[in-house]
## 1
Amino acid sequence: MATVVTTRKQGQGLPKIIYISAAWNIIIMLGSFALSYILFTQEPNKQLKDLGDNVRYFLALIALIPAAAAMYSVYGLLARRPGGRYASMALNYVGAVLSCLYLLHLWGVFIAFDDAGKALFENSFLLWGFVIAYAVYWLAGRLPEYSPSRRYLEMFAIGVAMLALIALLLLGGAVEGVWNVISTYGELQTWAVTIVVIIFAFVGYQILNQGDFFGETPDQRTSWQGWLMVSPNIIGFMLFFAGPLLLSFYLSFTDSEPGSIPDVIGFKNYGDILSLEFKTLDDPEANPQRALSFGYIPLDDFKIGNTRVVIGAKDVLFWKSLRNTIVFCMMLVPLSSIPALLLAVIMNSKIPGMKFFRAAYFLPSVAAVVGTALIWRWLYASDIGYINYAITEFVNGINSIFGTQIEYQKTQWLTDQGILLFSIVLLAAWQAVGFNTVLFLAGLQGIPTTLYEASFVDGANRVQQFRHVTLPLLAPTTFYVIVTTVITGLQVFNEPYALISSRPIPDAATTSVIYLYNRGFFRFEFGYASAVAWLLFALIFVVTIAQFRLQRSGSYDV
Amino acid sequence: MSKRLLVAALVLVMAIAAFAVPMTAAQEEVQLVWRTRPDNQAEIDVYTAASQQIDEAWDGVSLTYSPGGQEGAGYQDVLIAELEAGTAPDVFWIPGTDVARFAELGLILNLHDLASADPEFNADDFYPGPMGFLTTPLEEGQEVLWGLPRDASAFAIYYNADLFDEAGLDYPAAGWTWDDFFTAAEEITNLGEEVKGFGMNAWWANWGYWINAAGSRFFTEDYKACGLNNDATVVGLEAARSLFANGWAVPWGEDSEPPFLAGNVGMFMNGRWATPGTIANADFNWNVAPLPEGPGGPTNWLFWGAYVVNANTAHPEEAWELITRLTSAEIQGQIASLGANIPSRANQEAIDLFLATLPDSGVNNQVFTDGLQVAVTEAPLFFGDWPAIDAEYANQVNLVLNGELSAQEFADTICDRVAPFFDSAQ
C-alpha cells in the first residue's frame, strides 16, 4: 500500500494553485461569515421577511457551513491533507453550480423555457430536416464504404441537419435571445456573478488535478468521482426536497397564511387536529352537538347500555379523511395485489400472445389518472353507465333463465356516500394492477425452475407448487408490492379529485391529502396544512416500519 | 484539457442562453402583468386581443396577459404560491367568494383612494350587489374598494325542446312555477328509461337556488351568522330531494352536463358560461328559460368575479387604470361577444351589448339579464370562513339529497355545526 502513495511530493514546496485556492477559500469564508451576519441582523428581501425571523436565523446558521468548510480546507490544503483538498473541491464545485444557476437566472434563461418551447412548437416543421438528414445518412451507410457517393451523401445529410438546426435557432429567436443575454451585462451584478462562476470553476478544477500531490489512491479517486456523479441528484434533493421539507416542518408549528409573517404557535395546530372529546348523553334522542364543548363537532357516537357516548372533534374532517384513507388502503392492497399475482402467474406461462396481454394489462398504469377517471365517471353513471347496464343485463339474464324476479336497484356509484370510497378504490386498483403484475412477473421469473422440477418429482401438484414454492419465494416481491401500494394508497389524491365532480368533495371521499390540499389552498392555512402533512408522514412512516418489522419476523414468509 | 473544458462550458452556456427570454419592451416603460381564469382557448384569445388593444392605446405602459389555469386546473394554487413568493401578477381575477379572504390577508390593495381621485370612475355604473361587497370594510369606519367586477352571470334552465315536444309540454317561460317544473320533470322522465327530467351539478349555488326560491338564505341579513335554521329551508330542500327520490333528476353528485348534451336530460340548470359549449355540442333543439318560481318568489344567483390589484405591485396607479380599462364597456362588450359572460356594468349600453351577442344561435339572452334583476349576489364572507362553511353545508346537503338525513334535521342542526366558523364565535 505504501508504494501507491509515494507520489506525494513530501520534499517539495506547495504549488501556486494551493496558495491561490487557500486565498479563494478565505474569501469564501469571509463571504459566508458576512452573509450569515447579514441574515442574523437584517431582512434582506420580502420573501425572507415573510417567512419570519426564525427561518432567517436558520439560514444564517446554514451560511456558516461553507465558512467552516472553507476554514478547514484552508488548513487542510496548507497542511497537505487530502481532506482539505476534498473540502476545497466540494466547496468550489457546489459554489460553481449554485453561482452558475444564479447566473442563468440573471440571464433570464429559466423564464425563457416557455418561450423556447413555444418557438420549437411553432417551428416544429423544421424537425423534418433532422428526419430527412437521418434518412439520407442511413441511406449513405448502405453504400460501399469508400465510395465518393457515400461521402457526398453523408455531407449532404450533415448539411441538412445543420441547416435545420440553424433555421430552428433563428426562427426560435436565438439571435434575440443571445442579444438579451449580452444586454444583461449592462448590470454590474451579472459581471460579478460571471467572474465568481469562473473562479469557482477554475479553482475547483485545478484542485481536482492535484490528486498526485496529495497522494490520492485509485480508491479515493473512484470515491470522489462517484460522489460527483450523484451530486446533481444530491444538490437537487437538498434544494427542492429537503429544503421545502424542513420549511414545511417549521411552518407546521406556525400560523402561516399567505401575506403574513408566521408566528410560532407551538403545537397548537397538532392539538387542534388531534383534539377529541367524549361526552355521554342520558337522553339518546338529544342533539349531540349540544352536549359537546364549543368548537367540537360530533364525529361519531355509540351506546353503552342506555347511555349514548358522543365523540366530538375539533377537526372532524381530519379524522374522517384519515378513516377514509385507511379504509381506502385496506381495500386497495388486496384488490390490486391478489389479481396482480394471479395475472402474473398466468402471464408467466408459455401461452402464445402473452406479450400482448402483458402490454395490455400494464396500459392503465401509464395512462393519466385524469383521463381514465373521466372514462370511469361515465362507466359509473347510474342511469347510462356501462357498469349498471352490465349488471342489469346479467340480472335480467338470470331472471329469464331461472324464472326469478330479482330486481336490481341501480347502484349510485358516485353519489351513494356508503360506496363512494369503494368506487374510487376500484379505479385505483384497476390502475395499480398492471404495475403490480409486472413486479410479480419479475419475481416469478426469478424463481429457479429446478425447484418446480424437484417438487414435481416429489409428487407436488400445481396448487401445492404454488403454495409451497411460488408464494414463499415471492415473499420479497410481495413485501415490496404491499409496501409501495400502502404508501401510494395513503397518499391518494388524484383518483378522488378527478373522479368526483361534486365540489367541495364530499366527506365520504375526502382523503388525507385532499384534506390538507383544501386546508392549504382553499382555506389558505399553510401552517395547519403542513401539520396535517407531517401527521400523514408520521402515519406512513410508522406503517412502513411496522411492515419492515413484520417482514423481518417472517410474517411474509408464507 | 482545461481550456477545452472551459470552451465547452462556454459554448454550452451560450447555447442555453440562446433561448433567453426576449426583452421586447423598452426599459423605461411600466411593465404590468395581469391574469384571468379563462374557460377555454377562445377566451384566452379574446383576453389576449383585449390586452394588446389596451397596450397599444396606452403610452408608457407595457402589458403582459398571463392566462391562468382553467377551473380545477390550479388557478388558485398557482396564484397563492405566487403571492407568497412575491411573483404574482400586478392585476388578477379572483372569484367573488374569495374577495373577503384576500382582503383580510392583505393580499390585495385597497383602491379607494385611487378610485376617489379618478374623475371618470363611477361605482354606480356596476351592478350594486358586487359593488356592495367590494366596498365592505374590514373595520368600522374604513373606506374601501377591493376591486372592480370583471363580469356577471346568472343561472337559467337550459331545456331540451325536443324532449318537451315529445312529452307534449309547453316550453317553460317567465312566470312558471315549481308545480309546472315538477310536472315537466316527471313527464319527461316518463319518456324513457335513460331519460331524466332534470339535472344540476353538485356545488353550492345549485342547492342554494332551492333554498332561496323557498324564501330562505345562506346567511342572516348582516352575513354574520348561518341563516338556514328555518322552515323555508326545509321546504326548499324537500322540494329538491323529491326530484331525486322520485328518480326525475340525474342523481345528485353526478355530472349532469354530459347526459344533457347527449339529449337525455330535459332541463339542466347552469350559468351563462355553459352557453357556448351547449351551442357547440348539443345536436337537438334547445333554449333557455328562467328558473321556476318557488314559494319565495322569483330568484336567481348573481355570480361575479373581480379584478383586484396585488398588494405588492410596484405600480398601483397604473394597475388601477388597467382595471378601469379592463372593465370599460368596450372591452366588456368584446369579452361578452363570446357568449360566456355578461358585462358587470349595469347600464343599458352594456345590457344591449350583451343582448346582441350570439345572434345566430337563437338563445334567449333576455333570460339571463332578467335573472340578474331578481338575483341574490354571490357573497364573499367577511365575517366567517366560507370554505369551511361551504364544506359543512355541502356535506349535510349531500346527506339530505341522497336521503340519509331529513330536511328538518338539516335545518335543526346545520347552524350549530357551522357556528364555530363565524367570526362571532371567536
## 2
Amino acid sequence: MPKIAAPTPGMRVLCRDAEWLVTRVDPSDHSHQNYAVHCVGADDLVRGHEAIFLTQLDTIEPVDPRNTQLVQDQSSGYRMAKLFLEAQLRQMPATGVEPDLEGMGVFKPMKFQIQTVEWALRQLRPRLLLADAVGLGKTIQVGMVLSELMRRGRANRILVLAKKSMLTQFQSELWNRFGIPLVRLDSAGIAKLRLRIPANKNPFEVYQRVIISIDTLKNVGSYRHFLENTRWDCVVIDEAHNVAGASVPERHLAYRLARLLSRRTDSMLLTTATPHNGKRETFGRLISLLDPSAIPDPDFKEYSADDIRGFFLMRFKEDVREDAGADLTDRLLVPIDQTTVPATAEEEKVYAILSELRAEATKNKGEEAWKNNVLVQYGIYKQFLSSPESCRKTLQKRITAVQAKDPESPELPYLNRMDSQLGTLSIRDSSRYQLLKRQLEAIGWDGKETSPRVLVFTEYRETQDALAATLAKDFKIKYSPKFEQQPKQALATINGSCPDIHLMKTVEAFGTGASDVRMLLATDVASEGVNLHHQCHNIIHYDLPWSIITLIQRNGRIDRFGQTESPVLRYLRISTRDGMLKGDESIFERLIEKVEEINRSTRQGETVLKLYDPEAEERYIAEAGILQGNVDVLEKPSSEGEVESTELESVLSQANPAGQEDFLKFLLGETEEASAADPTADSSGKKYSRLRLYDDKRFLLDGYRYLAELHQDYAAIEENGKLMLLNAPKDLRRRLGAPNERGDVVFGATAIPSEAWPEDNQFRLTEDPDRVELAIKAARNTSGHWSRELLATDQQPILQWITERLLMLMKRGECPHITSRSLESGELCFCFIGQVSSRAGAPLVVDAHAISFRKGGGFEHRSLRDALDAAGFDSLVNQGNTGDIKAIQGPLIEAAVESSLEHMRELGRKHVDSLLPFLRRENRRLRNWKNRRQELLESRIEKLPPNHRKTKMYRKDLEEMDAYLRDREDNWQDTYFTASTEPSTQLVLVIEGVN
Amino acid sequence: MSDQFEFHPTGLTRSQFDRLSEYADRAETISPGHLLEEARQHLEQTQQAHAANRMINVRLASAIVDVIERVANVWDSLSANHQTWLAAAMLYFSSCDDDEPDFDSPIGFEDDVEVLNSCLRLAGLNDLRLNSEDYDDA
C-alpha cells in the first residue's frame, strides 16, 4: 500500500464520521510524530464549525491522491473549476524573501520600511527590534512584517502586547490598514472566556490573533501555566523598553513575561524609540529577549557590534527625510520672542523672593538646614513658572512640614513671605495665561466647533485644573473634570489619574473630526506612544519641562508620519527683570534650540545629556545649570554614566545598518554574491511567488456570487463603482465572531474586532487603497478609529472565508475535470499542488505544477501557470464536451501522482540544500555563543565558593543554556527546516484536450 | 601521557582539549595507516548517513579526510609530539560521539575541523588548515 503523507493545509480529511478541510497543522508533542490538525467542517453535519484534532487521539484519514475521483464541471465557463483552483492557490503559502507590496495594505511604503520587511524575511527566524525615532511609523512596519509572515503561513497565531492606552490604536491600525484582526482581551475578558470553556482548556488558544495589555498579562503567576503551554507564531511587544529597564530584571514581572513569550514563539518584534537608558545591560536585555543566544554574557554587559548586528534597526528623521518626502512635513517653531512676555509686577515680586531664597540656599548649601533641599533650591521656582496655583499648594505643604519639624528653620521666613505675596495671584492674572490666550487667538482658537484643534501640555496637575477652569470660564465653554465627560467636551483633560478606558476614548475623540473636543489639555501621561496628529498640528508647551527627552516625546505626538500639515510648536516663556533668574532664560532658550537641533539630526535626544531619564535630566539641568548659572549646561553631556553610554552608542552605531549603502550586505556581513543568496527562494529561483488567476476584487465578486447561487440565504453582493457591499450571511457572521452571534467558543477562531463589525452586518470592501485611506480619515472625522471601508486583500478574513467556502465545492477526494480545445486531443493535464512539510507540519516547499500525458506516451512537466496558458484556461468556455473521465480514472491518475510526488521530493532536496549555508551559519553562531557563555560561566564559578548564591545562579544559567539549545533544535530547526520524509500532493484539476 | 608534552594544541574548548588528550593517550599504539583507514571508514559512514539526512556535511568530512591523507604522506617528517597530537585529531574525527554529533547536526564536523586545525598549527602545517565556511554549500 502506498504511503500517504500527513495532512497538510487545503487537504480534505475524514474524522469522527465527518468531513473536514485542513487549515493548519501544528506539532502536538515533542516527538513530532503527532499533530494537532486544525480543521473547518466541510460536510452538512459540521459545515462552518472549527475543530482541532490530535492525531494521537483521533483517526484522521487524508485521501490518497491516487484515488481521486474526477467530477465533470458542468458550470458555465467552468466557473466552478476556476474558482476552486483559485481558492486552492490562495491557501498556498507564499515563498521567497522579497516582499510583495501589491495589495498588502493601505499605506505608502517608504524605502526604510520596506527594508525592515526585507530584513525580517531574510532572517531564518524573524526577530527584530524596531528602534526608530518617535513618529516614524513603527506600527505600519509591524503590519507589513506580519502581513508577509501571514502570507508565508508563519503568522497564524499572533500575540500583541501594548500599553493599555495604546490597545485600540494598535488594533485599529492593523485592522484598517492590513485587514489583520486582533481580538482585544483584558483581565475581565480572559475571566469571561474561561467561564465559557472547560476548566482545563487554555484561554490563549481560543483566538488566533490577540492583543493584550502588558499590565494584564504580566501577572505571569496567574497565567503562567497557560502561557507555558501556548505557542505563538509571532509575538509583538510595543514600547518594549517597558519590559527591559528594571534594575533587577528577575523581579520585574513584565521582563519575566517577555522572556517566557520569547521562548514560546517563532518570530518576535519589539518596538521602542528609547531602546536603552545608557546602560549596556538594558539594550542587551532587549536583544537577549529577541534571541537568548545573541549575547554570551549572562549579565548582558559585555557584547560587541557583531553580537547585536542584525537584531535591531534604528533610523532617525534625517535618515528617512528624503525617502519620506511630503509624509514628513517640516515643523514650524513660532519664534521664541513671539511667545515670550515679561512677568507682571506682582510676579516680579515673587521672583525677587525666589531669587533671594535661591541665593541663600546656594550660599549655605553645606549647612544642614539647606543641604539637599531641592524644593527650596529650584522646586518651588519651577512650579511658580508653571502657575501660582501649582506653586501655592506645594509651598503651603512645605510651610506646614517645616513648621512642624523646625520652627526656627532659616527657610521659613522666605516661604512665609512668598506665601503672602502669592496670596491673591491666580492663573488668570498670570502673564503666562495671558500669553496663552494671545497665542490661541493667533491660531484662531475660541473653543467653538470651528476652532482648530490644539494640544496643550503642562507638567502639573494643579496647573491643568486651574487652566481648564479658567479657559472654560473665559471662553464660555462647558467643562466638567469628570473622566467620562472628557470625550464630549470642547476642552478635554487627561492626566495620570485618568482610567485607561476614558483616556483611550478621550484620545480617540481628539483624533475624530466630528467630536466636540477642540483642545486637549494634557500632562505628560499623553507624551508617550499615542497618536494625536490626525486632527491636530498645533502644540503649545504651556510650561517647559527641563528635559530634552520629555520635550521630544511631547512633540512626537503631532510631529509624526502621516501629519498632513506642518506641525506648529509654541513654547510659552516668561522673562523677568530679576538678575539671577534672568540667566535661566538663556538655559531655557538653549533647551528649546537643542530639541530643534536634534529634530534635524540623526541621533537620539537621549544622547545629548546621556542621562536617559527625564527626571535625571531635570535634576541635572537644575543643579549643573540653573543653580550654577551655567548657560553651557546643555553643551556637553553629564559626566554621570557618560563613559558607558558613549561606549554603548559607539557599539550601536557600528551595528546599526541605517545609512549604509547596501544595508543587506552590511547586515549579512557578506560578499555581494552571498548576500544575493536567498534561503527561501522557490524551486524556480523566484524571489517571490504568488500565482493568481483572479485579482482580489474579481475573486471576491465572482467567488461570492457563485456561492450565493448555491445558498439561498446569501444576499446578493452589490457592486457600486469601486465599492463592493457584502451583507454577511449567517455562517460568515458566526465564523468571524459577529457581536450578536453567541455561538460556542471555537478554538483557533479568527474574530473581527467587535467595534469594527458593521452595525447592519454590511461590509464595504474595495480594491482601492486610496479609497480606504479616505475612509480612515472619514472615520477620524466622524466616528473614531474604525474605518467603514476595508481593503479587499488576500489576508482579509472575508476573502479567506470565501476561499474556504470555495474549497468545499468539491467533496473529499474529488477533483474537477474540464476540457480544452487548446490542448492536443487526448492530452491529459493533471494539475497539482504539492507540499513538502517539516517534521512538525510547517510548509517548507509548496509548488503548483502540472503533469501532462500525451497520446503516444509523451510526457511533460510544467509549472501550473504554463500549463494553464497552454490550455487557454483563462478564456475557456464550457461547450458541453465531457471528455472521457472513466478512461482517466485509475492508472493514469496514479502515474501522474507518482510523478508529482517525485517532483516534490526533488524540490524538497533542493530546498534543504539551498537552506544549508544559512542553517550552518546559524548553528555556528549558536555554537560559538554556547562556547563563549560556557567558558564565561565556568570561569566565574571557579572563582566562587560552591554554595555561594551566585554559583547556584550561574549553574542554573548553564542548565538553561542547554535547555534553550535543545529547544532550538526540537522546536525551531525541526519545525521549520527539517523536512518530513514524504511529501504530499493534491490533484486540483484535470484538463483534457478534446477536438 | 599527554601531560608530559611541553607543547600542546591551543585555542580549543575545555571539553575538546580533554577529549583530544584522551585520544592522545591512545594514539601512540595505533599506526598512521590504521588511523587513515579509520578516517576513510568514517567518511563512508558519513556518506551513507547523508543519503538519509542531507544536513550532514559530507563535503567537509571529505575535505578532512583529504587533509588526513596529506598528513599521512608527511608523517615521518613530523616530531613525535606532533605525530601524537595529529593522531589524536584523526581519532577525534573518526569518532561520532564528539563535541558536535557528526550525524545529528548541520555543523557536525566543525569541532573536528577546529581540533584538526589546532594540531596542524602546532605541527607547523598551516597550509593544510581548513575553513569550515568554505564547505557550507550542499
